[in-house]
Protein: YqzM-like protein
Organism: Halobacillus dabanensis
Amino acid sequence: MNEFKNDIQSKTNDVIDSGLGFVFSFVFFFVIFFIGVVFSFIGQ
């Protein structure tokens, strides 16, 4: 048996972890875009 399967650090599902990573990165870039749009409207 694989030695890495005996000592698992995280027993959560990888699909959930990758989904959360996608959502958090999407929200992060959306916030940056929204701040840029706000400054664009303020600058007009």
